[in-house]
Amino acid sequence: MRTLLLLPVLLLAGSALADESQVKLKEGPGKDLVQGSCVMCHSLDYIPMNSVFMDRKGWEASVAKMVKVMGAPIADEDVPKIVDYLAKHYGK
Amino acid sequence: MSSRREFLKTVAGGLAAAGGGVLVPRLAGAAGGGSVGPPNLPSGTLESSLLEALPGKRPLIKRTYRAPNYETPVDYFNQQFTPNDAFFVRYHLSNIPEVKAADWKLQVGGDAAQTPFELTLDELKKLEHVEIAALNQCSGNRRGLFDPHVPGVEWGYGAMGNARWKGARLKDVLARAGLKKEAVELALNGADSPVLDKTPDFVKSIPVWKGLDENTLLVWEMNGEPLPHWNGYPVRLIVPGWTGTYWTKHIVSIQALSQPFKGFWMNPAYRIPKGKFPLVDRFLSQETDVNTPITENVVNSLITNIKSGQKFALGRPVEVKGVAWDGGYGIRLVEVSTDGGRSWRDAELGKDYGRFSWRQWSYGFKPAKKGTYGVMAKATNRQGASQTFELILNPAGYHHNVVEKIDVHVA
Question: What is the distance between the alpha carbons of residues B30 and A17, in angstroms, rounded to a whole number?
């Protein structure tokens, strides 16, 4: 409920919680793009947590959900680069 | 990632040392294996999880930092009621305001309410108080055990807890709203919100009949204490028997609707295939030809006091303990096998805290020969529904209630 944000509230989890900065994604082309695209809304541990069991199609569907349903502001041309990185480093 | 495992052991050891008598969770789930869950969780889940404490909480198994998703180590389930500071934490969205009790207001309205109004906590507390012992379980508890794995928060066994919840009946609040006869659903919203405006806010709905159920409460107390922030302070809804997705935390709005609520978190999210699960409560206004919203918990049990690979001495008594629960009909029977499912004996049921609470059970036996014993538990509820031996596949990974086997060794 967004109207509540008008109240003087402390956003406990809106900013980075605890040690989420210790989540390190695997090195490789596309890593910075992935971090930059995902970390605005959620910690990066969602990526390793969902591995290793999705193939490229699975990661494609996940990224598409983030863009189409969750409204992630990711440019069309960046989508395949993100999927490439996830499929290569966190795909089966 | 053995170095990481070693690191985790070290961290946990440090916690144990620092705890000085405080209960520190055993490092493995009931099925044993890794320090942060059973070994059949996805490999990346095990590598990226660790024991960590949120403010006001004991170290829990961190699945994700933000949104915060932390599960309770199985050891805590040896207690009838799960301590508030060990109770699991589950959020979809990352903006979680700290709502002050004095500022809290519940907006009640909607097109199917004659008299919209706002309610303060003091006003809520003037209604009749009710306390119910009830299990709160995430729909996706044990999702990480799905084979094949499905995406989502990869929970082990600990996205659940049992507590005493105190509050007022939602129906007493709704009485003031003057529900119109065309009211079909109640839309529920909490104070948590998405980071981006475009992300669907986490709004759920329940059928009006469920909202009017005498067991559906707006609660401000959990196990005799105010709700922890991470479990919905200052007021949350509880819908005993139904999965946690409807137990809106930090609830601030209830809208009575004459039309089924349309929103991502009702459809396509939180759906199960129609006809696959033996459920009684149906959410008809939301059903489609192929699927239906998840409703009540399926019958299930958990062995809480032994783990895979544990060793026992020949001829010495062994007590197997655990809990069993269902969607609010009550547990009729828990059967235990110590020979991998060839033969079953009735466990002894513990005190009955009401049909929405989990039921403790225990089973004692004296191993008379050396070897491996496959210990299993299977619960049956008063509807006659039992746990399944084969996973009922569904794309979102809900309702995992497969009978599990823990191999222990007698020497």
Answer: 29
Show the DSSP H helices in B118-224 as ranges.
121-125, 170-177, 208-211
Q: Which of these, B249, B201, B202, B213, lies nearest to B87 by C-alpha position? A: B249
Overall residue count recorded for chain B in this entry: 411
Q: Which helix (H) or strand (E) holds B360?
A: strand B359-365
Show residues of chain A in contact with B65, CB under 8 Å. 16-20, 23, 43, 45
**Whole-Å CA distances, B329 to B134, B241, B242, B250, B299:** 12, 8, 11, 28, 9
Q: Which two tokens stand for residue B294?
A: 């998840």
State pLDDT tens for residues B177-200: 999 999 999 999 999 999 999 999
User: Using 50, 70 and 90 to split pLDDT, how confident is the model at B137?
Assistant: very high
**Given phi > 0 = left and psi -120 to 50 = alpha, else beta, which region is B302?**
beta
Instruction: Say whether pLDDT at B288 is over 60.
Output: yes
Q: Report the alpha-carbon distance of residue B264 to residue B11 in Å, rounded.
A: 39
Pairing of strands B405-410, B311-312: parallel
Q: Within 13 Å, how many C-alpha atoms sit on residue B403's CB side?
A: 21
A43 touches chain B (CB under 8 A): yes
What span, in angstroms and rounded, lies between the C-alpha atoms of B174 and B219?
15
Q: Which two tokens stand for residue B355?
A: 């049909």
Task: Please calculate the CA angle B137-B143-B149 and round it to the nearest 5 degrees.
Answer: 175
Partner residue opposite B48 with nearest CB, options A9, A23, A58? A23
